[in-house]
Amino acid sequence: MIKCIDVSDLRVGMYIHDLNCDWMSHPFLLKRFLVSDEAQIHKIRDSGIHEVYIDTKKGMDMAHAPTVTEVKKKLEREIIEFAQQEAPEERQVEASEEFGRAQLIHNEANLIIKGILQDVRLGKQVQLEQVEPSVERMTSSILRNGGALLSLCRIKDKDDYTFQHSVSVGALMVSFCKAMGMSKEVIHHAGIGGMLHDIGKMKVPDTILNKPGKLTEQEFAVMKCHVVESKRILLSTSGISDTAVKVAAQHHERHDGSGYPEGLKGEEISQLGQMAAIVDVYDALTSDRCYHKGMPPTDALRKIFEWSKFHFNPSLVQAFMRCIGIYPVGTLVRLESGRLGVVIEQNDNNLVSPKVKVFFSSKSNTYIPPEIVDLSRGVGAGGGDKIVKHEQPEKWRLDPLRFL
Ligand SMILES: [Fe+2]
Ligand SMILES: [Fe+2]
C-alpha cells in the first residue's frame, strides 16, 4: 500500500515510493528507493521535503498514516469545494475564435525568445525592445481569451524546451496577474520577467542543461546557479524594471524558506516572486521532457495544491487555479455518459462544469460527431452531463487540441 507520512516519521527500512516534490528541485538520482541509513533521511529533510509517500509492501509500514487514495480524495474534495464558489475571469471572445491568432502570437514569441537566449549564450546584451512587443501581443490575446494561448503553451518539443518554457511562463504570468486584478503596467513587466526568468540557463553548459536524465549532485548545483545568472544578466539589461528582475530572481524561492538562491521565507518573497514559483512549477510539471511524461494539468494543479502547505502561498495557489481552471482549456475529460471531449471554455461560477466539445465514445471506442456540451446546464438545455475525470490523451491516442 502507498501511504503518505511526515518526514519526521521516516525511518530506516521504509521504502520511498515518491518524494512528493517537483523533480526539478531535488538532487536524488532515484525516485524510488529503500531508506538504508539516517544520512538519507537528513538529506531528504534538507531538500525542503516535508511529506513523502512510502510503499508498505516493500518496506516498513506506519500504522495510522493515510493512504495515497485517501490523500487524493481529500485534496480533490477541497479543490472542488472552493472551485464551486469562485468565478473565473471574464473573456471577450470564445477560445475557438482566438485560437488562430493565438497560434501566430505563440510562434512569434518562441522565435523571439530563441533569438534572445541564443544571443545571451554568445555573450551579447538582451535587447528589451525585441521582447516588449511580443509580450504586448500575448497580453492582448490573453485579455481576449486566456484559454487559447495557454493551451498552445502546453505543446513543447524536447529540443526547444527552454525557449518554449520561457514563453509559457511569460504567458502564465500575464494571465495570473490579470486574474489578480493587477495594473496593465505590472502585467507587462511581470510578462517580461516571466519570458526571461530562465535566461541564466544560457550560462549553464549544454551537457547539463539538456541532459536526458537526472542530474548528479554537482550538476544540480551548477544548474541552480542559473537564477543568480538570470538576475545578473537582467540587472545589466537597459530599460529593465525591478518587477521583471524580481520575477526572475525569486522564481525558485519557496514559501517555507527551502528554495534558492536566497532561501527567502513567506513575505520576504515578493508577491510576484511567489506567483512566478507557482507558474514555473506548473509549466514544468505539465511539460513532456526526455526523461518523463508531462502530467495532465488537473493532476499538476492537485500536486501544487498539496505542496502549497509548505512550498507555495496557499491563497495564491487558489487564485492560480481560479485563473486557469481546474480543467484548463485543452484538457481531455471523460463524462458520465462515457463520452470523451476537450474543455473549450471555463464556466462562470463553477470551475468543475466547463463547456466541453465531445468527440469520442469510450464505450464504442470510436469517434462521434463533435458536439458542444455545457456542463453547467441541465438535460435538454445543452448540458445534463458531468465530468468523471480527466484522461491522458496518449491512453486513447487522441489529440484533444485538434478539436479546439
Ligand atoms: Fe528556473
Ligand atoms: Fe523555469
Features:
3 domains; 15 helices; 12% strand; four-stranded antiparallel beta sheet; globular; five-stranded antiparallel beta sheet; alpha+beta; Hypothetical protein af1432; 404 residues; 9 strands; binds fe (ii) ion
Short summary:
This protein is of the alpha+beta class and 404 residues long. It is 45% helix and 12% strand.
Describe this structure in words.
There is one protein chain. This protein is an alpha+beta fold. The chain has three domains: 65 residues; 230 residues, Orthogonal Bundle (Hypothetical protein af1432); 72 residues, no CATH class. 45% of the residues lie in helices and 12% in strands. The chain is built from 15 helices and nine strands. It has a five-stranded antiparallel β-sheet with strand order 8-7-6-5-9, with no helix packed on it. The chain has a four-stranded antiparallel β-sheet with strand order 1-4-2-3, covered by helices on one side. A hairpin with a 3-residue loop joins strand 5 and strand 6. It is globular and about 60 Å long. The protein starts with a strand and ends in an 8-residue tail after the last helix. The site of one fe (ii) ion has 5 residues, from loops.
